[in-house]
Amino acid sequence: MEANMVESRKKRTNMKDVAQLAGVSTTTISRFLNGDLNKMSTKTAARISDAIEKLNYTPSAAARQMVTHSSKMIAVIVANIDDYFSTELFKGISSFLEANGYIAVLFDSNASSEKEKGIIKTITSYNFDGIIFQPTSSSMENINSEIHFEIPMVIVDRNLDTTRWPQVLTDNYQSARKATLSFKKEGYEHVIVLTSKIDSVSTRRERYLGIRSTIQDTDIIEISEETYNRKMILKQIENLLNKNGKKTLIFALKERWFLEFIPPLLSKGYFQNNKITTTGFADTSIARTISPKAKLINQNPFLMGGISAELILKILKREKIKSKKVIVPAKIK
Amino acid sequence: MEANMVESRKKRTNMKDVAQLAGVSTTTISRFLNGDLNKMSTKTAARISDAIEKLNYTPSAAARQMVTHSSKMIAVIVANIDDYFSTELFKGISSFLEANGYIAVLFDSNASSEKEKGIIKTITSYNFDGIIFQPTSSSMENINSEIHFEIPMVIVDRNLDTTRWPQVLTDNYQSARKATLSFKKEGYEHVIVLTSKIDSVSTRRERYLGIRSTIQDTDIIEISEETYNRKMILKQIENLLNKNGKKTLIFALKERWFLEFIPPLLSKGYFQNNKITTTGFADTSIARTISPKAKLINQNPFLMGGISAELILKILKREKIKSKKVIVPAKIK
């Protein structure tokens, strides 16, 4: 890995090469890299973009620092600020950055890949020093094309099949498996899984597989973040509970679904005998106060935020990063 | 008011006047207004700042558009994203702006006036088109000096003694009064008020005065947002409940305190007879699921966000704004 880096540094094409191939001045190249696209024609921009691609040119951090002046702003893109995970993550990022003279700036994709694309476009056109990014989808297909150049970036809470960016993750599979196992020991044989759309996001898939590795009899209720009908979902859960004779565990793959659906089931008395119980990923004290005795899985998003912030500052300082994937283990308590 | 505006427009000093007095070029002035302070000495910046103050120069929206190119980014500063009010407000702003080709960008003061100052400094130095601002304190003393020039700004959720910026507010006094009145009719004679530091923020003062206008026998529990100890606060509430023989209403001045402290009191059985009851300002469905029968005050932060976004776009388009204070009535239900 390191040998490779040294080699690629020797061969690194520089701004002059790009300028020559595109037939423009280096000033124009630096404008392009700065995102000052207003000052050039679309034709010129396209020519530069082509030249960059042909030469596989990546401005070094140093080159970027020369052409851009640091704004001390780090963009944080979260998939949905309605999730407590996201606000806690942002608090963690923000407090670490603040202590180092940077400011964290939050963008909300609102669970929409279209909006996410627009945000990435805006960020890469303006003077942000780096991005900490929780994508709406693990494929990143949607936005790969929007990331013109090597803006420092850290991916959080999504497991991607790439080493292009460092990733900060929870041990989703293991912690979901461990929690399920402890309920299996108490005789639970059936799981109702409450989740957002499961296929598009690694986090959810891993959690589901962790559950399935322990208890095979599972029902999934997929909830659309934009358009769900609370009463209908509740009805679905109750139907499954009444149909199935086994001891059942209701497993919320994220806190929001726990907070939305567990209290009404509680007040209807479903958890009074031990035939039905509940668990889920939950990071705030509110989930705890709703169900004081529940065993919950805590991801520590604040710490995940702090680690992501530390990583992005390391990249900015061109320090070596030891691990491309940092796993922050969740706690079950 | 309008006559005044026409008059001041005739007399408006322009960029040339400022350049002349400061002894620099208009390009330098426009750099200053753009916040490109890195490209000039501190001395020059100070001279320009003095000249602007002496001439009472305010760049018109048109002048600003000439010197800055629009970034299509609106900065939203909230007092604390841990409050559901703030995230809902942001969702409202964001969806309205998005529909109009703008992007909302969130900054979190984290209940710290020091941090707020740093954020204002950053925003006014960079290329944001406007600010929607929920200050940590109603005095604004802290940050008045940081706002060099007339960046379009809308204040939300704080009632300020100024007409410099439009304000979007709830009818805090009236809605707190109305809610308290309905409980007084049911025989409640004593109120325990759960609030963050009450003196610094208009919203809280108004709500408290609304309560006091109806029931005089009140106890206030002030909770520090940064350092509160849950158990201690709970103990305080319980002591007050046990000491006072009257029928008591626990009134949470914001949702976070409702969610933190009502569930544990619920599970301890405090609300089982009707001697003790609860209400509060609460905007999410979670408060409702915790206490399905509680009468709660809903501010509609999403709508307040939408209105703030509409106002900032009007200012950007130099449209006339009818009312300097927009009151969005809260609903009690």
From TrEMBL, chains A, B:
Report the protein name in the record: Transcriptional regulator
Matching SUPFAM superfamilies: lambda repressor-like DNA-binding domains (SSF47413), Periplasmic binding protein-like I (SSF53822)
Please name the source species. Ligilactobacillus pobuzihii
Keywords from the named record: DNA-binding, Transcription, Transcription regulation
Which InterPro entries does the record cross-reference, listed alphabetically? HTH_LacI, Lambda_DNA-bd_dom_sf, Peripla_BP_I, SBP_2_dom
Domain HTH lacI-type: start-end pairs: 13-68
For this protein, the record's PROSITE patterns field holds: HTH_LACI_1 (PS00356), HTH_LACI_2 (PS50932)
Q: Which Gene3D superfamilies match?
A: 3.40.50.2300, lambda repressor-like DNA-binding domains
Entry keyword DNA-binding? yes
Which GO terms of the molecular function aspect are on file?
Answer: DNA-binding transcription factor activity; transcription cis-regulatory region binding
